Predict the structure.
Amino acid sequence: MQVAKTIAEMRELRRHLSGSVGLVPTMGYLHKGHLALVKQASAENSTVVVSIFVNPTQFGPSEDFRTYPRDLNRDLKLLEKEKTDIVFMPSDEEMYPPGFSSWVDVEKVTERLEGESRPGHFRGVATVCTKLFNIVQPNKAYFGQKDAQQAAVMKRMVADLNMNLKIVTVPTVRESDGLAMSSRNTYLNAEERQAATVLFRALSLARQLWQDGEKDADKIRQQMTLLIKKESLAQIDYVSITDADTLEELKTISCPALASLAVKIGKVRLIDNVILE
Ligand code: AMP
C-alpha cells in the first residue's frame, strides 16, 4: 500500500496506473461501512484509492470539525488489510492553500433535508469531491447509501459538469440492532447508544406501512414521528418521504421513494434512510 500526502505525489502515482481506478472518499475513523465501499471498489477496479481527509469546508461553524474522531494509524492498518493500493491523505493546507476561492454549488437537490439543516455543507462536499476527482482521476467513485442525499448530489454534479466517472452507491452497513454504522456513533454514551436504535425502528416502521399498502406519505411521516417522540432522548430534525432521485417531498408514494430522517440523540445528530422500492 502506498501513501500519498501531497497532490503532486498522488498525481505521480496516478500517472503509472493502467486499468480502471476506483476512488473511495472518506473522512477516516474507518468502520465496516467504509470497508464495504473499499471491498466493492476492489472487486470492480484494477486499483483502489482511498482518500482520508476531514474536509473543513463541509462543517458549519457550530459543528464538530475540531472534535471529529481521527485515528490515522488504525485507518491505515484497516486499509492495508483490505488490500487498498493507494491512500491519499492530504493536509488542510494542501487542499485549501491561501487564496483558495473557487466553489462548486449544486442547486435544487441540495436545498432540503441535510442542505437545509446544514447550510453550506453540500458546497463543501461538492467542492472537495471535485478536487479529489481532478487529482485522482478515478473511473468510478464509491459513496454510501447511508448519506443518500450526498450520493444524489454527486450523481447530479457528475452529470451536469460532464465529469468523466461513474458514481456507485453501496448499501448501508448496520450494527446488529439496525443502527447505521457511523464515525459519529462513537460520541454516544451507553444510554444514548440504546436510544439511537429509534432511527432504524422508525425507518422499519415506514417500510412495513408501505409494504402493507400505505401510499399516503403524510400518514407514514406521522407514524414515524409518533414512534420517535416516544424516545425521550431523541429530538427530530426532519422526517421525510421523498422521490429517491430528485429528493422532492411526496404526497403519494410512487416508487422508488426515500424515507429519511435526521434525529438528535442527546447532542449527537444522526441520519439514516431506507429506499422504498
Ligand atoms: P465519511 O467518512 O463519513 O465521510 O463517509 C465516507 C463514505 O462512507 C461516504 O460515502 C459514506 O456514505 C460512506 N458510509 C459511511 N457510513 C456508512 C455505512 N454505515 N454504510 C455504508 N456506507 C457508509
